[in-house]
User: Fold this.
Amino acid sequence: MEGVIVPEHALIAHKLTRLRDKETSSVLFRNLAREITQILMVEVTRDLSTISDNRETPLSPFTGSKIASRIGIVPILRAGLGMSDVAHEMLPMARILHVGLFRDEETLEPVYYYDKLPTPPNIDLAIVVDPMLATGGSAIAAVSRLKETGIENIRFVGLIASPEGVSAMRDAHPDVMIWLASVDERLNEMGYIIPGLGDAGDRIMDT
Assistant:
């Protein structure tokens, strides 16, 4: 699917199997989500532009590289917090910008309740993290809000998605690249991803 990257990686497949398992504890679920996010972040940052960085080894001077972009990691509250810590570990120079959205269980529409986004923006690239791209509503709303503040370069990272959610996101924001561990079969009538993994926020927070 254009604009969507699902890395074929044995470690992702192995860890995602255990992440989905209903018997997996909250502690293990959080760890697995972090580990999958770490692998995905390597893929997301593969093509970031760099500039020269002059340093010295114990033996001689050398010219290395450093990432040129000012990066912001944007977890969609609350489930996105399960991915943002490890994303920040991978990119310790990045800023953390929070966007608070939840899905109304009756209408399945996103409800917007919080953000701390600077205007004008102080980043060049926003990496939005949220474990699930189900209907796509929350991700679409978060990206729209980022664009309102003037951020143009945006990438989305999730663990699993439905085909419907991916299509909705691509229709709304065709300029936003998407990285996922899996695109699943479908949404059910309640708006949950099948086979999915349940409610990622509840499983991460043990609620």
